[in-house]
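Appendix B, example 12.
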Amino acid sequence: KHLIVDIGNTRIKTAVFEEEYVLDESVFVVFADLLTYSKKQVFNHAIISSVTYTESELLALLDFPFLFLS
């Protein structure tokens, strides 16, 4: 499974994929809600893009490894 996260200025959008299938899509307004959500998910890899947080900031905030798209 793969967790994809897009952190924009006003919303955080996520999707969980397994192979070519989308298993879940969610939208959050508060970063803390993303933290809660990610702890409940089981995934092998994560990809994050953000216009709000830097890679360094996310490394300090998140407790899972990820590929950061800049």
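Residues 39 and 63 are 9 Å apart (CA to CA). Strands lie at 2-7, 12-18, 21-28, 45-50, 67-69.
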